[in-house]
Design a protein that fits this description.
single chain; seven-stranded mixed β-sheet; four-stranded antiparallel β-sheet; mainly beta
Length: 115
């Protein structure tokens, strides 16, 4: 069964860090383009970062460049998102996604940045 399970969200103060994980099962994560998206209340879902299957080409959304880092671990079949210098506007539900056509989504993990 193909499944994505995110974890690592929580409440953090502005300027803090969090590391999100997305464990993949039922498929080999490195064979697909994998992405992190987020959706804040009242806003559309937006791309945070992606890593391509071929060449590992990485793309970041403009609002997170220089602060977030996407990575993957083949041994554990896990996608990561290291988030540093967090801002209140980073508050959202974060989702991982497999592929770009016939996509598969995880259930999401809440990140709240607040003092």
């Amino acid at each position: 069964q193909v499944q994505l399970v995110e974890s690592g969200g929580g409440l953090v103060q502005p300027g803090g860090s969090l590391k999100l994980s997305c464990i993949a099962s039922g498929f080999t994560l490195s064979l697909y383009t994998m992405s992190w998206y987020r959706q804040a209340p009242g806003k559309e879902r937006e791309l945070v970062a992606s890593i391509s299957s071929v060449g590992g080409i990485i793309t970041y959304g403009d609002s997170v460049k220089g602060r977030f880092t996407i990575s993957r671990d083949r041994a554990s079949n896990t996608l990561y998102l290291q988030m540093d210098s967090l801002k209140p506007e980073d508050t959202a539900v974060y989702y991982c996604r497999r592929g770009t056509v016939s996509t598969v989504w995880g259930q999401g993990t809440q990140v709240t940045v607040s003092s």
